[in-house]
Amino acid sequence: MDKILEKKSLTNWLKKLTGYDVYAPVLKDDLWNYEIISDGDNLELDYLNTVQAPKKFIFPQVENLLDFGSSDEGTPEITETLPQPNPTVILGVRPCDGKAVILQDLVFGGEFTDPYYWNRRNATYLVGLTCNTPPSPNCFCTSVDGSPHSQEGLDILLTDLGTKYFVEALTDKGRKLVSAGQALFKAPTAKDKKDLEQVKTGSEKKIKRQIKNLKKVPPKLKDMFDSPLWDEEAMSCLRCGICTFLCPTCHCFDISDEVTSSLPLKGHRIRTWDTCQFPDFTMHSSGHNPRPDKASRLRQRMLHKFQYFVEIHKKYQCTGCGRCVSLCPVGIDIIEVLDKVRDYG
Amino acid sequence: MAENVYIPKLAKIIEIKDEVEGARAIRTFRTQFLEDGFTHDCGQCAMLSIFGKGESMISISSSPLEKDYLQFSILKSGRVTSSIHALQEGDILGVRGPYGNSFPIKKWKGKNLIFIGGGIGLAPIWSVLQTALKHKENYGKLSLFYGARTSKDIVYKEDLEEIRKDIAVHLSIDQEEPDWNEFVGFVPVNVLDKKPSPKDAIAITCGPPIMIKFVITNLEALGFKDDQIYTTVENKMKCGIGKCGRCNIGNHYVCKDGPVYSWAELKKLPQEY
Fold it and tell me: Which residue does chain A place closest to B251, by CA atoms?
């Protein structure tokens, strides 16, 4: 369903979304982050990209898996704590971050369905915004089968056409949101459609960074497990893990118990984001560690995203958002590493 | 609604046996579910919970033919396993699972089965051994190689004496001891010394990673083919269902796609375990 929404009507549309929590990118202390919009006035979608992907709305950094306690006789008692979130609209999702949700779906679905993830996922409405110009100098979505106007994972894709948005409602959820603002949306004219195509084509050409022939990388990685390249590339790594915490597709987590009262016993079993870049991520209690050094951990990040995930799901586990490149404190650049892999030997 | 995969079932400890004393103590726990439980296959694991301490993935060492209890032999090592060691008979713990694949015992009909364990590594292959012993008619000759650091580190001592009546048991310890009449030396050396025949045989091994490595080398030297050697791998695990991301070896999650591998399968994966 294609529509046109005048920019000046954006606020009015959001006001009609009663019953939804609406989040949009807000600039605070030089950083764009999603914040709840209680009053949509003055909202302008002129942000770059948010520091954190909207991943946290569906897979929060801390999730309560269960509460535990004990009866008077000391028998453990478990209370299930499945989240029941309000319907939540995330406005202004970049197409790379929308696509990342599809990759997360593959991880949290499958043989063992993760109910915490899906309760949040099903309550989340993703309204995307085409990147008419790249929001980061390190954007490389077009190298990883994405595009600045990709619709994957989104319920609605908005494209800025100057004074108005071209609105593509892509799913039932998206159509429901558009219906809520019915009269505000008009049918697109032939010119609108032509403008849309022009903006979309133009947007792809503006992406500066590229990994040429990425297709050659996954089979090549298979033979590079013992390559000295990993040592060289990991030399400067501080093992801070920021590359994975900011990654919209990284899904690794820890599970631990948090005790709030010892007598009687009370507490929560929580799931928290974790990272393959930390030494104790894989360390056995014996002290043995299958990935004992920075090189093996950097290799795991690269191989997971560009070999193992491809072997399992036939997709790269990377959407080219560029966050790990821009925000690595020592300048480890996934694009450069993959270029080296492709050209290695 | 589908069952919540993260919620453990409650089970009561009905029996505790001290296997090994000291800093590397090993105890065997038998548990019974309070309500509905689950059935498992040989080689599968379960995630045990002590509420307030956390979870730990442990091999189920009892045979699936044993319907009255699940058995876990646990080396006291980290926070969770130390807390389990502090439990008494009658105490309740959480159990979720079963997780992972299993030994393909149906394919082993008529084969000679050679079990090779080291230390606590006897526990993960014990379920297969017990199952084979209960259905001896389905298999050829059964034998067991088992070694520990010292005679005090040997687990299942009474059971080993018991099964000796039925099958060949080759014990070993790493260094000489006054009253020790059996092999002295590492498990892989004992295997090479006794020279089990690869003809119609399957070797099933588990122990410390270094032991497994040399057992495989020595079995190959004796003429065993890659698909005649099976092992079970362990890695640090949190979820048990292939999502938390830490137990992978290449594109395999050990919790879900393992822990049981033939050497033919395992050698194709990156050597990172």
Answer: A308
Contact in structure between B52 and A265 (CB atoms under 8 Å): yes
User: Å from B1 to nearest chain A CA?
Assistant: 9
Q: In the structure, what pLDDT confidence band is assigned to residue B2 with cuts at 50, 70 and 90? A: low
Q: What local confidence, expressed as pLDDT, does residue B1 receive?
A: 44
Distance of CA B47 to the CA centre of its chain: 15
User: DSSP string spanning A123-169?
Assistant: TEEEEEE--SS-SSTT--GGGGT--TT--TT-SEEEEE-SSEEEEEE
Domain ranges of chain A: 2-55+81-205, 214-252+276-343
Closest Cα in chain B, distance from residue A308 (Å): 5
ipTM: 0.93
Contacts of A288 in chain B (CB under 8 A): 209
CATH number for the segment(s) B105-232 = 3.40.50.80
Report whether A34 contacts A43 (CB < 8 A).
no
Q: Does the pLDDT of residue B50 top 80, yes or no?
A: yes
**Domain residue spans of chain B:** 9-99, 105-232
pLDDT in tens, B130-140: 999 999 999 99
Task: Using an 8 Å CB-CB cutoff, list chain A residues near B248.
Answer: 300, 304, 308
What is the pLDDT at residue A40?
66
* Chain-chain contact of B238 with A254 (C-beta, under 8 angstroms): yes
B269: left (phi over 0), alpha (psi -120 to 50) or beta: beta
Cα separation, B47 vs B70, whole angstroms = 12
Cβ of B223 under 8 Å from any chain A Cβ?
Answer: no
Q: Residue A154 — very low, low, confident or very high, per pLDDT cuts 50/70/90?
A: very high
| Average model confidence (pLDDT) across chain A | 95
A45 Cβ under 8 Å from any chain B Cβ: no
Topology annotation, domain B9-99: Elongation Factor Tu (Ef-tu); domain 3 (2.40.30)
| Distance between B134 CA and the closest CA of chain A, angstroms | 33
Helix or strand (DSSP H, E) at B251: none
Q: Return the top range by mean pLDDT from A9-13, A282-286, B68-72.
A: B68-72
Q: Residue A336: which of A203, A133, A143 has the closest Cα? A: A143
- pLDDT tier for residue A55 given thresholds of 50, 70 and 90: very high
Pairing of strands A156-160, A164-169: antiparallel
The rounded mean pLDDT for chain B is 96
Asked whether A319 and A328 are in contact (CB, 8 A), the reply is: no
Nearest Cβ partner for B52 among A66, A68, A312: A68
